[in-house]
Design a protein that fits this description.
The complex is a heterotrimer of chains A (571), B (341) and C (306). By secondary structure, chain A is α+β, with helices and mostly antiparallel strands. Chain A has helices at 2-25, 48-51, 54-60, 117-128, 179-182, 194-198, 244-252, 267-274, 320-328, 332-340, 369-378, 407-422, 434-437, 468-471, 497-507, 512-528, and strands at 34-39, 68-70, 76-78, 98-102, 143-150, 153-158, 206-212, 216-221, 235-240, 259-260, 279-294, 344-346, 391-392, 395-396, 398-404, 426-432, 455-460, 532-545, 548-549, 567-568. The two termini of chain A are 36 Å apart. Chain B has 341 residues and is mostly helical. Chain B has twelve helices and no strands. Chain B has helices spanning 2-29, 44-54, 60-84, 105-140, 145-159, 162-176, 198-235, 238-245, 250-279, 282-288, 293-302, 306-334. In chain B, helix 7 crosses helix 9. The longest helix of chain B has 38 residues, at 198-235. Chain B is globular, with a radius of gyration of 24 Å. With 306 residues, chain C is mostly helical. Classes of the chains: A alpha+beta (571), B mainly alpha (341), C mainly alpha (306). The interface between A and B is large, with 74 and 59 residues.
Chain lengths: 571, 341, 306
C-alpha cells in the first residue's frame, strides 16, 4: 500500500514537472528582464588567464566558455563540442599522449564570426607564451603541441603519457578566447590590452556592455547564443564589493539582488537572514578542507633565517602520540555546528571529494579528551614541573597557533586552544591579515609558506576532479625553503619516502579505480604520519532569491556555469 | 603674502618628490604580493612568472624612476592628447598600469572620481553646514539644552564607528522597513545609475541618504566641537566686551567679530578634511558598496597593487600639501596680524 | 591631582591660596565635569579591579551556554562561544582604556610640541610643517604593516610579548594621529603670538621658554582638549583595526573595539551584544569630554572669577 502511494506520488511529480517547465522555463530570449548578481569580491578583469582569482573566472564564465565543463556532480560534460573525448570513443590516443576535440558545428562568436579550431589553438599559444605571465599555465602543463587539424578539430599532444588529459580547454579556468580579438595581446603585450581584457568577445549567453573594474559589470543577452530561447534574462547587473554579510542581506533580507556568491558566515547569521524570507541558501561540496598543518621543521625564533622552519625535526610534533592526541582532543561536530552549519561536514581526510577518493580509514567524529591524555601519559609526556603544560626531556608542549583574520577561524582558534589546554598543551594564538598571510612576500615573517609557527590553520582545495597535482603538495621536494624564496606547496614540510614513491606510481597509472585507490592511500599516509589534522570538509554556500529559478550550485566549475538556464519564477 | 605663496609653491616640488619617495619605499617594503589573493591552487612557479610579467622584481630604483616618468611625463601628455586631439607621440608607450586590472591607473581613478565626489563631497558639505551653526549656537548658549544635546549627539556620533552605524541604518531602513514603503532606502549604491530626470534624481537622492548621513555624522561631530571650543575662547575676550559697549548689535558682534576670530582652528580642520574627500571613506564606501576611491585604495592595498596604491596616495599627498597651503593663506586673511614674511 | 589633595589639609589656613585649589573649586562646581569625573572613575576602577572580583575568566568557553541573553549568572549574556560578555567587557576595557589614554596622550604631546614650535619659531615652521604634510600623506595600512614587520619581533624580545605589543600599538596609533593637533595648535599659536599681551610680555624680555609655558600654552588649551576627546575615541577604534591586521593582542584577547566589530554581524539577533561595547566607548568619550569642558572653564581665569 505504502509503495503504491509512493509510486503514485512519483508519477504525479513527474507529470507536474514538465508543466512547470513549460510554464516558466521556456519562451523567447530575454523575456525575464534583468537579473542581478552580487559578489562581495569585485571582479577586476574578465580575462581568466591574467587573473586567476575566483571572482574574475566566474564573472568571465558568463561570457567566454571552455570546450567541456564539470557539472554539479563533478562529471565532465561536453560544452562547445559534441562529446568528451575518451580512449573508448577514440578521442584520446591509446598511448595517452594526445587528445582530439571535435567542435560542434555552427557555433559563432558574439560578433558573428565562426568559432573555429584556430581560436582554440590561439588560446593555447596565448597562455603558454612565457612572457605573458598566464595564471592558468598549469592547465597546459606538459602540452607540447596544439594543432588545428581542420576548422572544427583540435589535437592536443602531450610530452608523455597523460592519464588525465582534461587540463587544457576544460572548466572555467581555461575558456577559449577569440584569436581575432587578442591577436595583438600576446606575451608582454597582454597587459596593455585593457579594452580586450575588459570586454572579451565570447560564445557564452551574455556579452559585456560596460565593465567598471572592481565595481560593476553590466551585461546583455548574446543574440547569437547557440541555444534557442536562452538566456531568459535580457540583461545582467553584476555588482562587486562589500562583505559577505551585506551580500547575503541584499539577497535574503532586502531582496535587492538575485544571487549572492560564497557566503562565509556563521550558521546562525545565515539562518536569521533566511528568516527574512526573500531568498534561499544553497550549499555544494567540493574538495575544500579546513585543516591544521603541523610543522615538521623547527620554527624556534632562536634559529637563524637559514634554519628556522627549515631544519628537521620539530621538537615534539614528530611524536605520533602528540599529533594523535591533538587530533583526538578536537570536537569536530561542534566545530561544524558553530562555524559552518549546512556548509560543513566532519572529515578526517585531506581529500574528502570526489567520493571515489574519499578514504574511510579513519574515524574522528567523537572527541576523546581522556584518551588523548592517556596517550600522552603513555608516551612519557607528563607535567613534571607543575606549570600546567606537559613536558618530556625538558621540552614543553607549548605551541604557537596562527591563522588568517576571519571571524570563524578566530572562534575555532579559541575553541581548539581550550581543548588542547585540557590535555596539557599550551597554546599561544596569532591572527594575521589574510593579504599578508596568503601573500607570498618572502620578506614578511607572517606568510603561511614561511610557517614561523608550530601549527597553522587554513583551507585548501584543487580544481577539477583529479587530485594528482594536489597530492604533489606532500612531496618532500616541494617544501618551501630560503633557497626557493620560500615558494613551494608542501607547507607542513612533510617528507616520507613511501609517499614520494607512491605518488610516482600514481603519475604512471591510467586506470581510474587504481588511481582512486592510490589517492586514498596517499591521503592515509599524510594524515596518519602527522602532516596535518583535517578539521572540516567545507562546502560553498551561496544564496539565490526565491524568484530565481534554474540555479544549480556547482563547486567543480564556475558557479555561474548554467546561467543561461536561469529564469524568473512566477512568485 | 604673494611672495610667500610663490615661495611656498616652489618649495612644494622638492617636498612632494621626497614624499613620493617615502611613500614608494613604504608601499614596497610592506609585505604585499600581487598574487596573494589568487586561489592556493595556483602553484608558486606560476606566481613567480606572474610577478615577473608585472615587473615586481625589477630593482627598486628602476621601478621608482619608471613611476616618476610615467606619472609626471607620460600621463599628463596623454591627458593633453585626449583634451586637444594633438598627437604627442604617446602611442605604444607603457602607461601606468594597475597590477590587478591590467588597465591604466589614471582611467581607474577617473572612473571612481564621480561617485566619491558625489557621496563623500556631499557628506562633507552637509557636515560643515550642520556643524557650523551647531558649534556657534552651542558656544553662544553654553550649557543650554541645545548645547547639551549637541554635545551628546556629536560625541556619540564620533565614538560610534561607521562599520557599526552604517550597518545599523541598513538594518533599520533597508531590512526592517518593507521595500515597498516610502521610507525604504536601498542598501547597495548603484554606481551605474544616471540622473536624467526628476524620477532618477529622486532615486539618486534616496541611495545617497544613508552613506551621506553616516559620514556627515562623523564630520559634524568633529567640526562642531572645534567651532564651539574656539568660539568659547573668543566670546570672553576683551574685544567682545568693547564691541558690545560700543553698542554694536549682538548679531554683528558674534557673527562678524567672534566668528571671524574663531575660524582659524575650523579652517585648519576643514583644510585637513577636504583632501580626505578625495581619499574616499574606506569603511563607509565598503558598507554601502559605493565603490569609490576609498574602496579602490583598500582593494589595491590588499591585492599588493603597488602602482595603484602609490598613485592614489601620491595624489592624496598633493592635495594635502595644497590645502595646507591654502589654510595658511586663509589664516592671513582671517587675521591680518599673521605674517609669514 | 595627588599634590592638590596632599596639601589640602593645611592649605585653607594659609593666606595666599594655591591657584590649583581655585581650579579644583571651579571644577567641582561644574556639574557636567563632576558627573563625567564620577563616570570615568567608575569605568577605570571597574576595569582595574573588576576582573579580579568577577568569577568568570574572559577566555573561558562554556559552549553549552552560548548565545544567552542577560541573566544573573551572566549579567550581559554570553557570546557565540559561551564566553561571559561581562568578563570580556571588563578585561577588554583594561586594554582599550590603557591603549586609548596612552596613545591619545602620546599624540597630544607630539602634536602640541610640534604645533607650538612651528607656530612660535618661524625658522622651524617650514621644516616641521612639511614633516607634518609627509605624515598626513603616508598610507596608513601599508605603514602599519611595515611597522609590524620591522619591529614586532624585536619589541617582543625586549619587553615580553604583551609589553612589546602594547608599546607597538600605542606608538603606531600615536605617530599616525598627531598631525591634526599639530596643525590646529600651530594655527592658533600663529594668531596668538601677534596678540597685544604676547607683544607686551616679549617687550619686558620674557624668555621664550616662559613665554610658551605661561602665555601660549594656556591659550591653546581648548582645541587641545577637544583633540584629546576625539583622540580617545579614535584610538579605541583604531586599536580594533590593528588587531585585525595581526598587530594587536592575540585574537582571544578581548578589547572594546574588537567586541563591537565582532558583534556587528549579530546586530539583528542579539542587539545587546553591540550595545555593551558601544555604550562603554561612548560613555568613556562623553565623560572625558565633560571633564575637558570643566577643566577648560576651571583653567580660564576670566570665567573662574564669575
Amino acid at each position: 500500500m505504502k509503495l503504491k502511494i509512493a509510486l503514485m506520488g512519483a508519477v504525479a511529480a513527474s507529470a507536474i514537472a514538465p508543466m512547470a517547465f513549460a510554464d516558466a522555463h521556456e519562451g523567447e530570449r530575454g523575456r525575464d528582464g534583468n537579473v542581478s548578481i552580487i559578489y562581495w569580491q569585485a571582479p577586476s578583469i574578465l580575462n581568466p588567464f591574467l587573473s586567476g582569482g575566483t571572482k574574475d573566472i566566474e564573472a568571465a564564465s558568463m561570457i567566454i566558455e571552455p570546450l567541456a565543463r564539470y557539472n554539479q556532480d563533478g562529471a565532465l560534460v561536453p560544452w562547445l563540442v559534441d562529446e568528451v573525448p575518451t580512449v573508448e570513443n577514440g578521442g584520446v590516443s591509446e598511448d595517452l599522449t594526445s587528445i582530439t576535440w571535435k567542435i560542434t558545428p555552427g557555433i559563432v562568436w558574439a560578433d558573428g564570426t565562426p568559432f573555429t579550431s584556430a581560436d582554440v589553438k590561439f588560446t593555447a599559444d596565448y597562455c603558454m607564451n612565457p612572457d605573458g605571465g598566464c595564471a592558468q599555465v598549469t592547465k597546459f602543463e606538459n602540452v607540447t603541441n596544439v594543432e588545428a587539424v581542420d576548422d572544427l578539430t583540435v589535437k592536443v599532444t602531450f610530452g608523455g603519457p597523460t592519464p588525465f588529459p582534461y587540463g587544457p580547454f576544460v572548466g572555467g579556468e581555461s575558456p577559449i578566447i577569440q584569436a581575432a580579438q587578442f591577436a595583438n595581446c600576446m606575451g608582454a603585450a597582454a597587459s596593455s590590452c585593457s579594452t580586450e581584457n575588459f570586454n572579451p568577445v565570447g560564445t557564452g549567453p551574455f556579452k559585456v556592455v560596460e565593465f567598471k573594474p572592481n565595481d560593476v559589470i553590466t551585461m546583455e543577452a548574446n543574440e547569437l547564443y547557440r541555444q534557442e530561447g536562452k538566456p531568459a534574462f535580457a540583461s545582467v547587473t553584476f555588482k562587486g564589493g562589500g562583505d559577505a554579510t551585506a551580500a547575503g542581506r541584499a539577497v535574503m533580507e532586502t531582496g535587492e539582488f538575485d544571487y549572492a556568491w560564497n557566503l562565509q558566515l556563521a550558521p546562525d547569521v545565515i539562518a536569521n537572514m533566511e528568516a527574512g524570507g526573500k531568498g534561499t541558501p544553497v550549499a555544494g561540496f567540493g574538495p575544500l578542507v579546513e585543516r591544521i598543518m603541523l610543522n615538521q621543521t623547527n620554527p624556534s625564533p632562536d634559529l637563524g633565517p637559514e634554519e628556522r622552519s627549515v631544519i628537521r625535526p620539530h621538537p615534539f610534533l614528530g611524536d605520533e602520540a602528540v599529533y594523535k592526541a591533538l587530533s583526538m582532543a578536537i570536537d569536530r561536530p561542534l566545530l561544524v555546528e558553530i562555524g559552518y552549519g549546512q556548509a560543513g561536514k566532519v572529515t578526517c581526510n585531506w581529500i574528502p571529494a570526489p567520493a571515489a577518493v574519499n578514504s574511510d580509514t579513519f574515524d574522528c567524529s567523537t572527541q576523546d579528551i581522556a584518551g588523548a591524555n592517556a596517550m600522552l601519559e603513555a608516551a612519557g609526556w607528563v607535567d613534571s614541573n607543575g606549570n600546567g603544560t606537559r613536558d618530556k626531556d625538558g621540552v614543553e608542549l607549548n605551541m604557537l597557533y596562527q591563522t588568517s583574520t576571519n571571524a570563524v577561524r578566530q572562534d575555532f582558534q579559541a575553541l581548539i586552544k581550550q581543548w588542547w589546554s585540557e590535555i596539557g598543551v599550551g597554546v599561544e594564538l596569532r591572527n594575521i591579515d589574510a593579504s599578508v598571510f596568503f601573500g607570498g612576500d618572502a620578506a614578511s615573517p607572517d606568510t603561511f609558506q614561511k610557517f614561523y609557527a608550530d601549527v597553522e590553520m587554513y583551507a585548501n582545495t584543487f580544481n577539477g576532479t583529479d587530485p594528482q597535482s594536489y597530492l604533489a603538495n606532500g612531496l618532500c621536494k616541494n617544501a618551501p625553503m630560503p633557497s626557493t624564496q620560500w615558494q613551494g606547496e608542501n607547507i607542513s614540510r612533510f617528507c616520507d619516502e613511501a609517499y614520494d614513491a607512491l605518488h610516482k606510481e600514481l603519475t604512471n597509472t591510467a586506470n581510474a579505480d587504481e588511481r582512486a585507490r592510490i589517492a586514498r592511500e596517499l591521503n592515509d599516509i599524510m594524515v596518519s604520519k602527522g602532516g596535518m589534522i583535517p578539521l572540516v570538509h567545507r562546502g560553498r554556500l551561496s544564496a539565490h532569491a526565491n524568484s530565481l529559478g534554474g540555479v544549480v550550485l556547482n563547486v567543480w566549475d564556475s558557479e555561474l556555469w548554467n546561467v543561461a538556464d536561469w529564469y524568473r519564477t512566477g512568485n | 603674502m604673494f611672495t610667500f605663496t610663490i615661495r611656498r609653491l616652489i618649495l612644494t616640488v622638492p617636498t612632494l618628490l621626497f614624499i613620493s619617495l617615502v611613500i614608494f619605499l613604504i608601499v614596497k617594503l610592506s609585505p604585499s604580493d600581487p598574487t596573494g589573493n589568487l586561489p592556493l591552487t595556483i602553484p608558486s612557479e606560476v606566481r613567480e612568472q606572474i610577478r615577473e610579467a608585472l615587473g615586481v622584481n625589477k630593482p627598486l630604483l628602476v621601478q621608482y624612476l619608471l613611476w616618476l616618468k610615467q606619472f609626471f611625463w607620460l600621463e599628463p601628455l596623454i591627458y593633453l592628447e585626449n583634451l586637444t586631439g594633438w598627437d604627442l607621440g604617446t602611442e605604444g608607450k607603457v602607461r601606468l598600469i594597475s597590477y590587478q586590472t591590467r588597465s591604466p591607473v589614471m582611467d581607474l581613478i577617473m572612473q571612481r572620481m564621480p561617485q566619491t565626489l558625489t557621496v563623500v563631497g556631499t557628506a562633507y558639505l552637509v557636515g560643515i553646514l550642520i556643524a557650523l551653526p551647531i558649534g556657534i549656537i552651542s558656544a553662544y548658549k553654553q550649557y543650554s539644552v541645545f548645547d547639551q544635546a549637541g554635545t551628546f549627539i556629536s560625541m556619540i556620533g564620533f565614538s560610534v564607528p561607521p562599520f557599526f552605524s552604517g550597518v545599523l541604518v541598513i538594518v533599520l531602513f533597508s531590512v526592517i522597513i518593507p521595500s515597498d514603503s516610502f521610507f525604504w532606502l536601498p542598501s547597495i549604491y548603484d554606481t551605474t545609475h544616471e540622473v536624467v530626470d526628476w524620477e532618477s534624481f529622486k532615486y539618486q537622492f534616496r541611495q545617497m541618504i544613508m552613506p551621506v548621513m553616516v559620514l556627515a555624522l562623523q564630520i559634524t561631530a568633529q567640526i562642531s566641537r572645534f567651532t564651539r571650543a574656539s568660539m568659547l575662547d573668543n566670546l570672553n575676550q576683551d574685544y567682545v566686551r568693547t564691541a558690545r559697549a560700543k553698542g554694536m548689535s549682538e548679531s554683528v558682534t558674534v557673527m562678524k567679530h567672534v566668528l571671524r576670530n574663531s575660524m582659524i582652528p575650523v579652517v585648519t580642520v576643514i583644510a585637513l578634511g577636504i583632501p580626505s574627500i578625495f581619499g574616499g571613506a574606506i569603511i563607509t564606501e565598503q558598507v554601502f558598496k559605493v565603490n569609490g576611491l576609498g574602496q579602490l585604495l583598500i582593494i589595491a592595498i590588499q591585492g599588493g597593487d603597488v602602482p595603484t596604491v602609490q598613485t592614489l596616495t601620491f595624489i592624496f599627498a598633493i592635495l594635502i600639501v595644497l590645502f595646507n597651503l591654502i589654510a595658511d593663506i586663509l589664516y592671513g586673511l582671517l587675521d591680518p596680524r599673521i605674517r609669514y614674511d | 591631582m595627588t599634590e592638590v589633595t596632599a596639601t589640602s589639609a593645611d592649605a585653607p589656613k594659609k593666606a595666599p591660596r594655591n591657584q590649583w585649589w581655585d581650579v579644583w573649586d571651579q571644577f567641582k562646581s561644574h556639574k557636567g565635569a563632576m558627573l563625567g569625573f564620577v563616570v570615568f572613575m567608575t569605568i577605570v576602577l571597574g576595569v582595574l579591579f573588576g576582573p579580579m572580583l568577577w568569577h568568570f575568566d574572559p577566555t573561558f568557553i562554556d559552549i553549552r551556554a552560548r548565545n544567552q541573553g542577560p541573566s544573573w549568572a551572566h549579567p550581559m549574556g554570553t557570546d557565540q562561544l559561551g564566553r561571559d560578555t561581562f568578563a570580556r567587557m571588563l578585561s577588554g576595557g583594561r586594554v582599550s582604556l590603557a591603549v586609548g589614554m596612552t596613545a591619545m596622550a602620546l599624540s597630544l604631546v607630539v602634536g602640541t610640541f610640534v604645533g607650538v614650535l612651528a607656530g612660535y619659531f618661524k625658522r622651524l615652521d617650514g621644516l616641521l610643517m612639511r614633516t607634518t604634510d609627509l605624515f598626513l600623506a603616508l598610507p596608513l595600512l601599508p605603514l602599519l604593516l611595515v611597522i609590524i614587520m620591522l619591529f614586532r619581533d624585536k619589541l617582543s624580545a625586549t619587553f615580553g610579548p604583551e609589553g612589546g605589543i602594547f608599546i607597538l600599538m600605542v606608538s603606531a596609533i600615536g605617530i599616525t594621529s598627531w598631525m591634526q593637533t599639530a596643525r590646529i595648535v600651530r594655527g592658533d599659536v600663529l594668531a596668538l603670538k601677534e596678540r597685544e599681551f604676547v607683544l607686551a610680555a616679549r617687550s619686558i624680555g620674557t624668555p621664550n621658554r616662559r613665554m610658551i609655558t605661561r602665555h601660549v600654552l594656556p591659550n591653546v588649551l581648548s582645541p587641545i582638549l577637544v583633540s584629546a576627546t576625539l583622540g580617545i575615541a579614535n584610538a579605541i577604534i583604531t586599536e580594533s583595526a590593528l588587531s585585525f591586521l595581526g598587530l594587536g593582542f592575540p585574537p582571544d584577547f578581548p578589547t572594546w573595539g574588537r567586541l563591537l566589530f565582532d558583534s556587528v554581524d549579530y546586530l539583528q539577533q542579539y542587539p545587546e551584544r553591540v550595545i555593551w561595547p558601544g555604550l562603554a566607548i561612548s560613555l568613556t568619550v562623553l565623560s572625558v569630554n565633560y571633564m575637558g569642558d570643566g577643566l577648560r572653564d576651571a583653567l580660564d581665569p576670566r570665567i573662574r572669577g564669575r
